[in-house]
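User: My collaborator sent over this chain with a note saying "see what the structure looks like." That's all I know about it. Can you take a look?
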Amino acid sequence: MTSLYDFSVLNQNNQIIPLDNYRGKVLLIVNTATGCGLTPQYQGLQELYERYQDKGFEILDFPCNQFGNQAPGTNEEIVSFCDAKFGITFKHYAKIDVNGADIKWNFTKFLIDRNGNVVERFEPTADMDVVEEKIREIL
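Assistant: Without extra context I'll predict from the sequence alone. Here is the result:
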């Protein structure tokens, strides 16, 4: 059976990164956009990262331009925007296509446990306090 750890992704510099690098970590995987009404969620994501990174928590940011062309920049432009506006220190990855049955808009979030299992899917408008509570539960 294929697991999350069997896949590799491209980072912001288009280098191949095996997701196996995150084995044993709690992950929040998010499709993002820099020009969306939900873009201010970057601030809440950064706060979560700062609170829990030392406990084995990582956020993987995958920009997507499929929803209303709300992430139109290059990988470099997206990273520069996020760093300047929100002080993002979690990992940025290359822009991807995500549109499908499980992802209908920007800032859909998937919480992954230390064994690579999806334990929760959060709608883009999910309350960040609820997201944080679930993160704490599995940390």
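A starting point for your reply to your collaborator: The mean pLDDT is 93.
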